Q: What sequence folds into this?
């Protein structure tokens, strides 16, 4: 049976785990094995490392936490986080640490429950695309598509003498007036 009274350190540890488990960048890295065979274990270790980082360093600023998380993601998962989520994750962890430090454990536990609910209900899964049906193919016919044809139409192609600076290329004009530069075969 779980203890009725949790220490701030235990609650903060749960909070860090909840935040990281709902961080899409980390979950994509784990799901796709960016950390190798032991990606799940690395993610678990990462939660412990972040929690320990807060307890070992007093008065951490958000940018320090961002740097630490970024370094962990880069070193452990060969992943550079550039989707803008890093500041949000760092801010959330910093806020929860301050709340635990101030003794607002009930509020932090509520935030953890909210994150766990978000994790279980909002987890995005990749699903294969459905093969095109007649209904879908009608929509595709209406869309403008780019066609690539090596030969081009003879009326629209105008060959020019290659310049001396680029002797291995030909220039062609297509119907729309664009100049296409191709290598000679």
A:
């Amino acid at each position: 049976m779980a203890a009725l009274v949790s220490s701030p350190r235990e609650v903060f540890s749960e909070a860090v785990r909840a935040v990281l488990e709902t961080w899409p960048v980390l979950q994509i890295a784990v799901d796709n094995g960016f950390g190798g065979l032991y990606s799940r274990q690395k993610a678990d270790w990462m939660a412990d490392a972040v929690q320990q980082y807060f307890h070992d360093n007093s008065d951490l600023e958000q940018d320090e936490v961002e740097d630490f998380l970024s370094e962990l993601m880069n070193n452990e998962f060969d992943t550079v986080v550039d989707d803008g989520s890093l500041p949000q994750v760092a801010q959330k962890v910093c806020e929860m640490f301050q709340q635990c430090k101030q003794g607002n454990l009930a509020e932090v536990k509520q935030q953890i429950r909210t994150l766990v609910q978000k994790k279980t209900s909002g987890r995005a899964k990749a699903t294969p695309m459905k093969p095109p049906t007649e209904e879908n193919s009608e929509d595709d016919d209406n869309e403008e598509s780019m066609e690539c044809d090596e030969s081009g139409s003879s009326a629209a192609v105008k060959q020019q003498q290659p310049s001396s600076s680029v002797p291995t290329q030909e220039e062609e004009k297509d119907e729309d007036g664009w100049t296409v530069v191709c290598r000679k075969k």
Summary: The longest strand covers residues 169-173.
